[in-house]
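User: I'm designing a mutation panel for Lipoprotein and want to avoid disrupting the core. Could you give me a predicted structure to guide residue selection? Please restate the sequence first so the numbering is unambiguous.

Assistant: Good idea. Sequence first, for numbering, then the predicted structure tokens:
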Amino acid sequence: MTKVFGQCVVAGLLCSALSACQWVDSARIKQVEYTESPSSNALIYCSGTHNCEFERLGNIFIVDERTHRVNPEAINKGLVRLQAKTLNQPNALYLSAPAKQQELVIRFYPISPDRAETLHVIHAFKAKQTYTFKMYRDRTRQHVSLLNASAPDPLCVDLQQEQKTIRRFCRPYDPQTGLGEFVEQKI
């Protein structure tokens, strides 16, 4: 009984420490937001799933895959912004990125918080523009066989600049091999 109680106390302390860390991260992000001017940067959002996280922009890691904590270097460089009250809320972060061609890695969690779909994109982001990576299931395909009809609809991610879709990436389901890779589609 005392062993179980001890484990509960340790788990409780760990949870409170993690929430305290997230509160500190939220406060640091807000402090950077008010001291830096992102007027020449591109603003990058993600949406469409229960949660999404920016893993990396160029060589700078943003959110750790295991701990889901924001990297202090990303905060110090002013890359991350908070669009929610706390980091515990879904899709709480967005990026204020320098306007140039960059590689961006995003993790989407369409089904559960423990199963991520990762998208790698190289894009030339423009200053003073808003970009949104929006994940969805493409339900418009025609089912020609029973095997194809039983497969899940492909996952797609649209890259929107302001309100216009400029790029689309889809991950088709292959019944023989399972999910494939995200492939850019023609718009």
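For picking mutation sites, this is relevant: The chain has three helices and 13 strands. The first strand starts at residue 41 and ends at 47.
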